[in-house]
Amino acid sequence: MPSSVVVVPRTAVPLSNEQRWREQEVNRQVFDGIRLYVARQPVPLQWFDPVTGQSVEIGTLIGEFPAQAQFTLRANGQLALEVPYRINNDFGLTAISEALRDRMRAAGYAESVEGYIILSDLVVPKQ
Hints:
There is one protein chain. The protein contains two helices and five strands, in the order αβββαββ. It has helices at 17-24, 98-106, and strands at residues 25-49, 54-73, 79-86, 112-118, 123-125. The model has no long low-confidence stretch (mean pLDDT 92). The protein is elongated. It has 127 residues and is mainly beta. It has a five-stranded antiparallel beta sheet with strand order 4-3-2-1-5.
């Protein structure tokens, strides 16, 4: 009786939404505590939607804001700051669209998300 070999390929483990976000952050460096930065002019606060793989603008920031990490954004190679955002609560962004809130909820985020700001000469560490 001939023996047979059954090959069972390994299937990829589905990534969580958090893991999909982390894949966008190349060389992520978490700060020791929160660091404060200042946007001298309005800059976009963006959020990566792990369900669709798209970055969307939450709104614009000007003035002081906290950052918890720095990384290189995989999509375009730009340096960015990871910014915690309590949905409809922080930075004067208290009336974001219902469609965006629905996207955040669909991705599993009801209270807060990790947004990001691209580093530029408009964004400086608070002195």
